[in-house]
Amino acid sequence: MNLARPRVRVRPRLLPPTGARRPHRRHHPRLARHVPLYVVGGAISTALQGVLFLMLREPLTAPLANPVAIGITTVLNTEFHRRITFNDVTGPRARQHLQTVGTFLFYACAGTAALGLLHLLADSPEPATEATVLVTTSLVGGILRFLVLRWWVFVWRRDGGGDP
Predict the structure, then answer these.
(1) Which of 3, 23, 128, 154 is deepest in the core (most CB within 10 A)?
(2) If you ran DSSP here, which 8-state letter would residue 122 be given?
(3) Minimal CA–CA distance to 47: which of 136, 118, 152?
(4) Residue 112 in domain
(5) 148 is in which domain, residue-wise?
């Protein structure tokens, strides 16, 4: 039985000549690419989550519409970030699935708690207010998710051969 840790594969990339890089600086050269793509993907999926929530709220009720909308957008958003934002970097499949489930659970719990708090503070909040609370919760969670995606899920080779 092979107990060696599987290596993470990275698609080949064209890098600038060595002289064009500043190895003495402590920064992540790909971060400038990741942040805008992450923000765009997050904005689209957050808007989609809000729209789905409003569409599903009447037939399902708010507490049920929230996790359904989150489930759909989590799968789409994670796939977008895997393929586009983080250049199809792959790692162990189990970790990718765990990340998707963890993301869903985080947003479902956070959104449900936010909706519950809203309903404690307001007797009958408008659907637009509920959607605003969910979108705000998603935006805060999105910052945390970026950090998890960047430094845990879509990791690069740690043997010095990969470039974050």
Answers:
(1) 154
(2) -
(3) 136
(4) yes
(5) 29-153
